[in-house]
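Rather than argue in generalities, we reproduce a single protein record, letters for residues, whole numbers for local backbone shapes, just as it appears below:
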Amino acid sequence: SCNNGKVSQIFYASSNEGINWHPYPEPVLKIGRDGSWDDYNSEVPTVIKDRNILKMWYAGYSHAKSDQYNIGYATSFDGIHWNRLAANKSPYGKEGLVLTYDESKEGEFGSIADPTVVKVGEQYHMWYNGFGINMIAISHATSKDGIKWERDKANPVLKPSMKWEMIGAEGSVTQPAVLWNGKNFEMWYGSFADEYQRYTVISHAIS
């Protein structure tokens, strides 16, 4: 993600050894069309290679509702040219949109964001941030196609509880990154250490 002071968009860079990176000169996933659910920000991507297709899930929000994040989906064959999911294939009838917040669910008050996706066998697993009352928590959903998602009944699956995840009565566990090690899911995630959301620490959890 990169923000130019006005909007956030998704960029791409390549490297042969992981140290020296060569950025592509333009965003590879720009904000959505005017009036769309992601016409103000597209950010925090997670990408997997599924057979010969690159699949991306990302967070976005609209200019009209700049405090309400949802999750979108796009595909690519080269990592540079991306196509959002067609509106007629979206569960919500909106280009790119595959998961929107549900305020009837704990920890999904007004926004969901920051997805990370892992495919194990033929099932996709997504972990994402949910913004609740007095907390930011991590929830889980599964899918057979990466488009239609079913929330875990145990959501949120990770709530703030450790002393470094709490600021008084409020807490946060944020921006998960998950890997499947062949036996377990391993998650690394951040949390805020003060009320200004600074000094993020990184923690580890296993399931």
